[in-house]
Amino acid sequence: MKWFAVNCIYQVICGEGKHTPQFNEQTRLILAEGIAHALNKANLNAVHFNPSFNNCQGDKVVWKFLGVGGISEVEELTDGVEISSKIVEPKSVDQYLEKLKHRNKSLTNQNHFDN
Fold first, then answer.
1. Amino acid 1: pLDDT
2. Are 6 and 68 in contact (CB under 8 A)?
3. How confident is the model at residue 112 (pLDDT cuts 50, 70, 90)?
4. pLDDT tens by residue, 48-103
5. How far is the CA of 73 from the CAs of 11, 26, 81, 97, in angstroms?
6. What pLDDT score does 100 carry?
7. Does residue 63 contact residue 30 with C-beta atoms inside 8 Å?
8. DSSP of 4-45, one letter per residue?
9. How far is CA 22 from the centre of its chain?
C-alpha cells in the first residue's frame, strides 16, 4: 500500500446558490495499492468527506464533489513532507500579502492549538 495526495474539488453551494460562486480544493491523503485504486477511492468517498449542514441563517450548505484535480504519490510520511503546492498569481500583490498576514496572525493567535 502507498500514500497518495489527492486534490478533491468541490463547489460550495449555500441555500439556493444565489451567491458568489465558491470552490473548495482539498488535498487529502489516501492509502491505496496504486494510482487507479487511489482515484477510485477518492471518487467513491469524496461525497462523504464533507457532510451538508445548516449555517447560522438556517441555509443548507452543500459541498458538491466535481472531481479529482490532481494526484501524486507521497513517497514517505515524514515531518515536513510536501503534499500539496500551487502557484498563485494575484491581481494585487499588496492585497495578497495583506490577506496572508491576516491569516497568519489569526492562526498564531489561537491558544487551543497547544491543548
1. 94
2. yes
3. low
4. 888 889 989 898 999 899 999 999 999 888 888 888 777 778 899 899 899 888 88
5. 25, 16, 12, 31
6. 86
7. no
8. EEEEEEEEEEETTS-SS-EEEEEEEEEEESSHHHHHHHHHHH
9. 12
What are the cell numbers at 3? 500514500
Backbone angles phi, psi at 2, to 5 degrees: -130, 160
Q: Would you give the DSSP letter of residue 20?
A: S
Continuous H helices in 1-115: 35-49, 93-108
- The mean pLDDT of the chain is 87
Please give the order of strands across the beta sheet that includes 22-32. Answer: 22-32, 2-14, 60-74, 53-54
State CA 100 to chain mean position distance. Answer: 17
Whether residue 39 contacts residue 65, with contact meaning beta carbons closer than 8 Å, is answered with no
Measured in degrees and rounded to the nearest 5, phi and psi for residue 92 equal -125, 115
Mean pLDDT, residues 41-51 taken together: 88
Grid cell listed for 19: 451567491
